[in-house]
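Quick one - first record:
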Amino acid sequence: MRARHLLTAAATAGSGAIAGSIGAVGVAAYFARRVVTPEPPADDTTVRSFTDLTVTLAADAATTAPGRYGLWATGGSAHVRLGEVMSVERKEVTRELLGVDFGELSVGPARFNGYFYAGPPAQSLGVQLADVVVDGPLGGMPAWESRVLDSRRWAVLVHGRGAHRAECLRAVEVLDALGINTLTVSYRNDPGCPAAPDGLYNLGLSEWQDVDAAIAYAEAHGAEDVQLFGWSMGGATVLQTADRSPRAALVSRLVLDAPVVDWGNVLAFQAGLNHLPPPIGRVGQKLLSSRRLHRRAVGLGEPLDLARADWVTRADDLTKPVLLIHSRDDDFVPFGPSQDLAHERPDLVRLEAFDLAGHCREWNVDSERWERLVRAFCAPQLVP
């Protein structure tokens, strides 16, 4: 009788362990899918009131940060530029209203971000942008082009995951002043672009081909020197481009803003933010890279070689000078791997640390410093 009870208990415990394992894999698969699934940007604040000179928003760490920012409102049909904080009280923050780019501001849900410039039809940038199409491997991809008379120097600007090419416009004025043409690109899965075959992000491991197509566009229009700029996942994409592009010889340098230089580290960090136990985060990474399970568990057309996207481990493979701009308090892409990469390759990587900028908002917090760094790094006399 005692033996029978022990066997029954063991079987019950085993079933529970199996069910728990299956549940853990399910959670890991859901987490992995979320990482690679394109999602439209969501409203993250509320316009409480506004005047001709000010806008009052719900107060949080983002909306009370120092600097200049953009605000999408009225269902995305209006974009305004916001200046410094004027007051914070009763869980509300009032900021300067620097200008309305288009649309009509209204009370209600809104999206606060670092896109200080909205792009056409807005005219606040001060540099003329032309709508062009880059012929990518999957089809035409809309881009914005700015040209400097007779310049052979180009910069290709690449936005991050879930972002929009307007994210990159903060770099255009300083590059124009340096005599550098710019191509602000979109890539697969962006609005107006072809979807990837699996409809998912590949974390830069396939998107680099679209950036390579942008380099080809610049070359066809006379480029003899190309600089690559990347924000967040755009940084990961730019690193893959410099490493794998057949046109890499044209690339003279990289400017990376809050870049993903080690996807394994970022995925572990994001798992922690979502209160997932470390083992589940590791299983999620394995599902993304597994040759057997990538399609069934996550939906990926091809497994992701995350080791190829670990530039701390691959530091010896870097061949281009890098200006790496990153905030110590980045709450999305950890600062640590950027610091580690700069330590591993001090001959090529110049790390400039910011504070209070969060993710990809270093320009917003201190645009003078950001532009000074870019100006010095990208100056004409540095071209080989």
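second record:
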Amino acid sequence: MKHIIILGDGMADHPVERLGGQTPLQYADTPYMDMLARKGRTGRLMTIPTGFAPGSEVANSAILGYDLNKVYEGRGPLEAASIGYEMQPGDMAMRCNIITLADGRIKNHHGGHLTTEQGDTLIKYLDSRLGNDRIKFITGTQYRHLLIIRGGNKHIECAPPHDHPDEQWRQLMVRPEKGYDTDGVDAAAAADGRLTAKATAELINKLILESQELLESHPFNKGRADRANSIWPWSPGYRPSMKPLCEMFPNMGKGSVISAVDLIRGIGHYAGLRNISVDGATGLANTNYEGKARAAIDALKTDDFVFLHLEASDEAGHDGDLELKLKTIEYLDHRIVEPIYNETKAWQEPVCMAILPDHPTPVEIRTHVDEPVPFIIYHRGISPDTVETYSELSCVNGAYGLLRLDEFMKTFMAIE
């Protein structure tokens, strides 16, 4: 049995008055996901462990079966792995967004949807002006880049910019975690060769302010409505220790990951999955859906497991763009699920498909929430449950009930 997870990042939502009280999943035209819900079995999944924020790094790792209490190190190290930066002893890595500030508030978390080429220009400029033996800026994808602080301390509180749209940015600057600004902790950090949490927070805040001066006057921003005028580092960590999935699930030999997002590619790297790049994959609604579907189909011919990640619904949710979110859901159904199902349904070796989001990103609040997500599991010969359509509400009645964290992957990979 082959296995593929098709993950629509942030696809789940809340009922929306403009849609007659339906969620986008209920309202959108999704004939193939609805068909698989009828033919397969459904349920809901809690993807966020107690005590963790509902971020994609947490949710996707949990979906793949990892215990976040043992492996979590933030987004920075995962994205470092994806872009090929090998973390050295003492390194602390952070996701470094380029964002737009306006009138003292965070206007958006993406600097006006930068291209990778535009982001590269700005990050290299900042590294040339602010980089040194301790600080390194590294190009990632689009607005998502990397900040390395040698000797940095991960015990700091950072605000993910996509969780705080329209909020005053000065109130969200970095601070030490509670309990990590005492003399005893300072001494322990020094003995470990690291800055204190307080010194690390002060250094990052200084970089934020200096980046604003540099970016505001950069020629790239001349005449732009959404000025890419500040960095925003967050989600710090050291190099994680994660077992390859093939060691956790003996029936999984070769596996691959397909995503335009460095975070997901980094998880795949540490999970022992082969990263497959697709030309035109952007992480937005204009991504190369057909190319990603074809890459997944081709990977299933040689691999036992494929993790196919689509980011566009999450971006639409963060932007509060209801019409775009509906389109991204329909694109996933028509341009991803439909071709993969039609291509694989008659294969001699059956393919087990799972479809789910990692977390909801409701368009009316524009941030992630910690709530169960609906999922489908389908393969040829499975005994269906009574669910007729795929949505947050219908899957409440699914045969799998409510699963938590690694229970999903254990259930999914146990199907042989």
